[in-house]
Structure formats: C-alpha cells, structure tokens
Amino acid sequence: MTGWLKDLKDNLARDPIRIAVENKDFASKDRVEFLANQVLAVGWENLLDDIHTSSKLNLLKSRHPRLRLNNGKAFKVPEIQNYLLVPIDRHRKALTKLMTSTHNLAVEVFRWKQRKDGSPINREERLCRFCHECVEDEVHAVWDSENGVAAINLAADSSGLCIAFARLVYGVLETFDSVPVYIPDQAELHSREILPSNA
After folding, report:
1. Are the C-beta atoms of 163 and 123 separated by less than 8 Å?
2. Fewer CB within 10 Å, N side or C side of the chain?
3. Distance CA 36, CA 45 (A)
4. Distance between CA atoms of 58 and 153, rounded to whole angstroms?
C-alpha cells in the first residue's frame, strides 16, 4: 500500500487513535464506514478523557458523562451544545469562556501566577475581587450558591434560556473584567501585574 492510503493507515495506528487497519479494510464500504465510526468514537472518548482529567473544566465535566467504547461499536457523537448556537457573537463567546474556563476570573488568572518564592496560589486563596471572601470561580461569579453548577447547566441546555443566560454571563464577565483581580496582601506575587481585562 502506498500513497494516501498508507498515510491514512499510519495515522490511524498512531496515538491517540491506535486503530489497526489492514489493506482489506478499504475494500468494503461497510468496513470503511465502520472505521470512520470507530475513529469518531475514539476521538470522542479521548476528548472526554481530556475533559474529565482537567482541573479546570468543571462545568464541562458535569455536562458530559463518561462514555466508553462498547467493543468498538460506534455510538452517536453528542450533538452540538446549545450554548454554541447563541446568535449574538459576544454573548456566545462569553458563555463559551465560562464553560471552558478561559475567562479572567481569579480562579483562572492565578492558576498561572506564583508567589515570589515560586509557590503556587492555591485555589482557596483566589478570592473574589468584590467580596474578598469567596473563591472567584464561575459559579460564584454568576450564581453564588451551591446549586450554581446545576443552574448553569440547565440554562446552557435549554435553547430558550440559553440566549438570556448568555447575555447574563456576558454582563457578569464584563463587570468582573472592569475591576482588577484582587491580590491578597500575603500573596506577594512574582509580578503584581495581572492579565489585562480583555486578555
């Protein structure tokens, strides 16, 4: 086998896919469809592994249960999430930032900062820039309650609520971005310069 079929076979055998393919697998339409479904299933499984092993994707973890391959049988890849269909660009981006923890809340900003002595700033020290008492994370910023994750997921799942919720999230993140991140006196950061609000 030479050319693009060999390249395809070699790439399927590599990490993270690792699907062994033989020349005869390309001879039948059914087998090619099976391989395509298997690639989708393995890709989704790898994505879920990344989500569930990440320390920062808590909202996505709660939305996607662990799925396992069933002896190589294909399963339907979940549909596009409602929060990706929000029609107003800045609202959709704000909601996506909230869901993927790519915002400027203290829980994320201080993930990349350290004290002058090189030690990390622990999660419980990443306090809200307004109340200076609670960890400034997604749930605290949007809904300061223990049911915040469930409420965020409910709003992101419902197409009707999702648009209004995205507008709310946009407003919340804009408000937080307008005020510098709170730096506790004892933190003595390596650099007191914090990411700009629009980073």
Report:
1. no
2. C
3. 14
4. 11
Question: What are the start-end ranges of the E strands in the chain?
Answer: none
Under 8 Å between Cβ of 101 and 56? yes
Cβ-contact 140, 59 below 8 angstroms = no
- Quick one: pLDDT at residue 176? 92
Domain boundaries, the chain: 3-63, 82-187
With beta carbons less than 8 A apart as the criterion, state whether 103 and 109 touch: no
Q: What tens digit of pLDDT does each residue of 72-108 get?
A: 444 445 566 778 889 999 999 999 999 889 999 999 9
Residues 163-197: tens digit of each pLDDT: 888 888 999 999 999 999 998 765 556 554 444 44
Q: Give the 3-state DSSP-derived string for 3-50, with helices as H, strands as E and coil as C.
A: HHHHHHHHHHHCCCCCCCCCHHHHCCHHHHHHHHHHHHHHHHHHHHHH
